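User: Sequence in, structure out. Go.
Assistant: Echoing your sequence, followed by the structure tokens.
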Amino acid sequence: MEAVPARARACVAAAAALAALCALPLPTGTPTPWGALVLLAALYALCDQVVRRRFGGTFYPVLLAGAFLLPPAAAALVPLPAALLPQAEPAPTLPRRVWRAARPALAVWAAARTHDVLDGDAAVDDSAFPYALLPAGAAVLAFCLVLTLLDGAMHAAADRVPLRRAWRGLFTRSLAPVAVHGLAGLMTAVLWRSPYGPVAALLVLLPMGVSCWVFAQYHRERAAHQATIRALVQAVDIKDGYTRGHSERVGQASVMIARQLGMDDERVEVLRFAGILHDVGKLGVPTRLLRKDGPLTPEERRIIELHPEYGHEMTRGIAFLGEARAAILHHHERLDGSGYPYGLAGTQIPECARVVAVADAFDAMTSARSYSRARPVETAVAELERCAGAQFDPRMVGALTAALRRHGWRPEVTADEPAPEGPPRQRTHGRTTGAHR
């Protein structure tokens, strides 16, 4: 009990009291189909255990099938056995067990009540399609809405965040997956009431189980990708402490440009990876050169200018990066052909590299480091516009400028030491003030 804040315990108690009221039978004495209730409750407990332990998610088709098959008071009892069984994490507290019972109970009661009010039971009995989709869809909306209200309230109570912020985006993120689960629940309910009976209805859950497995695999793979990227970025930050945090901000600026250009979500994600990993090749550059104070010799410049090729080679085996590898290799090319490593010009430079080049230079100018002061955003944008057409792609510069007008930018100090007083020392090897190592 001590691990749960007092406000969260109050939220759990209120939800439990409402769930208990919902589980009371209606005054009309609506008969409870105990056989269907017991079977659905046992099936939900089994599915919940399997899905949580193996996939780390939730499995709502059985709950929603209960909402379409049972009276509201009976449907509210379906989640109870699942909350009483041992959970995946060690020693869950009593409030967490109560919450796991009350939260789905309230949601499924609201769905069942909505379905009942819209005469969905008759539509299920008669397999009246497409009319049966209307009450089922309304029930899914009610289910999502209650989950959103409860989750937002708990987030606000436990983490002390404003309710408006706690609820932001919850409903829209949950609607699509719950709608798919609701369709499976409706198919289960229709088959259950058909001559084929409950056994045939349960077969609907098999493809849903497979889809949950595929979805879980996708998220695990995505988590592995993120872990790989974090490890590489942390290694670069440790080696080149002067630019700590630079990689993440270049990724953010690249995303701003990509979205302003109207790229699809998949390419936006690729540009984010490209921005974050653009300097990963510095792992192959001697640390003494990265941290050297004062100007670089021509030989030292040539060594540092190998870092795009090092980065390209280091990420060669990471398949999910896709065209981000081209940005890692070419983000120091210039439109006039005087860049490196290959001196590409104009549209010979991959589009993703042209995006990252602008994002990279912008953050370098707006971030304070031990050898240079941060410039105001307006000054940095003016410098990018001055160099557009020679060093930077004007289209990318214009996209960043438009995105900054819409969303703003908060430059951060990334150095281990404050910026020195007086004129900053020139430690770059580039040909414009927007260039850097």
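User: And one key feature?
Assistant: Residues 366 and 374 are 5 Å apart (CA to CA).
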